[in-house]
Amino acid sequence: MTKDKTILRALAGETLQTPPIWMMRQAGRYLPEYRATRAQAGDFLSLCYNSDLATEVTLQPIRRFGFDAAILFADILLIPQALGADLWFVTGEGPRLSTITNEADFARLGDPADVHETLGPIYQTLRNLTGVLPPETTLIGFAGAPWTVATYMTAGRGTPDQGPAHALKDTNPALFDALMDRLTLATIEYLSAQIEAGAEVIKLFDSWAGSLKGEDFDRYAIAPTKEIITALKARHPDTPIIAFPREAGEKYIGFAGKTGADCVAIDNSVSADWVAEHVQVDGCVQGNLASSHMVTGGEALARETRRIVDALSNGPHIFNLGHGITPDADPDNVQRMVDAVRGG
Prior knowledge:
Layout: H1 6-11, H2 32-41, H3 44-49, H4 51-65, E1 69-71, H5 78-82, E2 87-90, E3 94-97, H6 103-107, H7 116-132, E4 138-144, H8 146-155, H9 163-171, H10 173-197, E5 201-206, H11 215-235, E6 241-245, H12 255-259, E7 263-265, H13 272-278, E8 284-289, H14 293-296, H15 298-311, E9 317-321, H16 331-342
Parallel strand pairs: 1-4, 4-5, 5-6, 6-7, 7-8, 8-9
Antiparallel strand pairs: 2-3
Helix pairs in contact: 2-4, 4-7, 7-10, 8-9, 8-10, 9-10, 10-11, 15-16
């Protein structure tokens, strides 16, 4: 089966004439069929926990665009909820959580080994998908990296500078380290169960890694990622893992070697030529078209897509965006991108 799954071939280090392609947030609000299914679910969290509907939205972009991978439809903040945090979504604004700001808040969190009861529907979605995906399509599971999840848990929402997390790690490092350890262990349990349910590849999203500087990057981005990957490889040695330390800049260099990741996903703040010279020399890379092209379209989209493909053509490469597709994107532009990658 692996010989027919181009993403697994790229992750194994093979340089392919045409790179495989999928897209972060490929099941989402830019698709009218997704909006219809979400309306049927009632709200975002209900959609995540409804295995049948989550299966449907995961499949929608595969049917429409024929991507080489489907990524589980879920959310990075399900882990805090499974640990006992309150989680809800405000329409048009995003997630809200109960906060961890002191020892009493932390004491209310549950044991990492107990997350599975809450997350059972997510595993069922994966089991559903293994039976209905096209045989050539790779199934990707995922989680948020501990630092990124902690930024939401300390602030109670997304923030522009992750200030509350930085403040807590600086003023109460023992508490912050305990939170990071709890999240790391819970993430290992969650991702291991995803693999057992059918995920063929795992992606670890550290969306706010770029706000960590110097030794903090090593301590809170590299070290937890390494711990998670090491544990998963011990349990599931044949499962490849993609790590995404977004906006890591120079810290992308050597990230795969320091963490054990099979592939490093790259955002679009660095050029594909730079990635080829400094990151792809260590193995597979994923990226890195600016998601704004999915809104603006035109010849610039096709030209930039081809430029990235050419720049990264001498090593293993999975084509993707540099960040998730936005709700204002035009599905026709997604098709233009796919055609440009595949030479259509």
